Amino acid sequence: MATLALQTSTVKPLGDRIFLRVQAAEEKTAGGILLPDSAKEKPQIGEVVEVGDGKRNDDGSRTPIEVKVGDKVLYSKYAGTDIKLGSENYVLLSEKDILATVI
What we know:
Elements: E1 17-22, E2 45-51, E3 55-56, E4 62-63, E5 72-75, E6 81-85, E7 88-94, E8 98-102
Antiparallel strand pairs: 1-2, 1-7, 2-5, 3-4, 5-8, 6-7
């Protein structure tokens, strides 16, 4: 089977989708206890790497996406499609799955 090697610069989301780099999971608790891989929670914060052109309206125009490349965002826990490129984890999700920007 052939292996496809992708880079983040070759991924362009379509429509109202957003491509995020997932923030690393917490390695230890607030009390300093190291967490095993099975106990780590899926991170819900990511950095926007690429954005689509926006949602197409009924009249054919597009509604621009509210976030831009470089923004840190909080997204729904079970939203999107998980993608692994090299050693980095990414998520491809719809704009409606983004809950807030992180300042």
